[in-house]
Amino acid sequence: MSELVEKAEKAEKAVKAEKAEKAEKLDAADELAVNRSEFVLEEDGDTVYLDGNSLGALPAAVPGRIEDVVRREWGELRIRSWTESGWWTAPERIGDRIAPLVGAAAGQIVVGDSTSVNVFKALVAAVRMARLTDPGRDEIVVDATTFPTDGYIAESAARMTGCTLRPVPPSEVAGALGARTAAVLLNHVDYRTGRLHDLPSLTAAVHAVGAYVVWDLCHSAGALPVGLDAHRVDLAVGCTYKYLNGGPGAPAFLYVREDLQHLFDSPLPGWNSHAEPFGMRPDYEPAPGAPRGRVGTPDILSMLALEAALEVWDGVTVEAVRTKSLALTDFFLECVEAYVPEGRVACVTPRAHRERGSQIALRCPDAGDVMERLIERGVVGDFRRPDVLRFGFTPLYVGFADVERAARVLADVLAETSADASAEPGT
User: Is the pLDDT of residue 421 over 90?
Assistant: First the structure.
């Protein structure tokens, strides 16, 4: 029996040595490896941050930029900074910086407010646009698997516009559309499973029935090519604190396709989106172009932190990020399958590249306890009820050695939890 155990242990060590060697070779060939130095990260070799799909790591350029904003632009220039430091134009300027990362030309993205607020603006505006040509459109279709807030917003928008809300799984959306459909709200990547939905075909299906589509890009912006202009997306929203590394509470963005901007009728008109914001006129006239998506005074400190954070994209293409993302997630699954006993976890993220975002979700019965133990050992992911472990892979700062270590620690933790369960009385 001891010989069998010894043989198994040797085989296990050999597999781990092979994976570690493969990780080293992959890191040596990684063209994005140099970008890791642009982030504030532990270099102890024991910490692996795989939660960038919830909150991106801190770019090294941000602290100095914020200190300058606070001490000089606010502390010395004060009110003059709205013009002299470019505060007033920041929402559109930073929007233009994000635009190439989601496949949009300049002049179509404005930054400001939260994702939730922008979802509300976009969805109500979509219904209003649909009714310009067909007042009888009275249905909003929403992704039935959506992040809860999107569902809450969609329900409120439906009540406000007198629409019926119809939750539909993305795979069934094309067959659910019809003459009554006014607007469709969809997630590009499912936040639980990491499933990537087919933006081009779903957008075309919505257009085929004369409706408008709103895409939530929170889990795809900065992680993979989106192609907003190429696929004629009507409206889109996204947060900037995940793969764009803008920081906690960083302002979201709103995309309105250029040829629709004159029709965009925001349910939240504010002085910042007025054609003459300092005219203080009692009647509202929307500004031309992307600025009509603004509402109130921009949150300058977080806005400019985001602008500094986006510097990490200088010289980087989202296509290169996507290539590495798929390689990282493939390698993670390879290591998990090599290290973890069969049946202990189940991958709920699609294996096909065309259906996968930049995260891997694993299902296991004791996921909450497992994630706590992982974090204690320096492997940081997150837990989604009832039984999902989520691991987000940000290619600008995650390497292949990180991936191998995460899978190895996961296997160790799973072995411990199984042993603990077996040792409990009555089991």
Answer: no
Q: What residues act catalytically?
A: 147, 216, 241-242, 390
- Average pLDDT over all residues of the chain: 96
Q: What is the reported pLDDT for 45? A: 85
Directed axis angle between helix 318-339 and helix 400-423, to 10°?
30
pTM: 0.97
Q: How do 382-384 and 388-392 pair as beta strands?
A: antiparallel
As a whole number, mean pLDDT of residues 138-164 equals: 98
User: How far is it, in rounded angstroms, from Cα 427 to Cα 419?
Assistant: 11
Q: Mean pLDDT throughout 246-254?
A: 98
Exposure class string for 264-299: b at 16+ Cβ within 10 A, else e: bbbebbebbbbeeeeeeeeeeebbebbbbbbbeebb
Q: Is the pLDDT of residue 420 over 80?
A: no
Decide if pLDDT at 423 tops 90.
no
Q: Is the pLDDT of residue 425 over 80?
A: no
Amino acid making up residue 68 = D
Those residues whose C-beta lies under 8 Å from the C-beta of residue 78, and which sit 6 or more positions away, are none
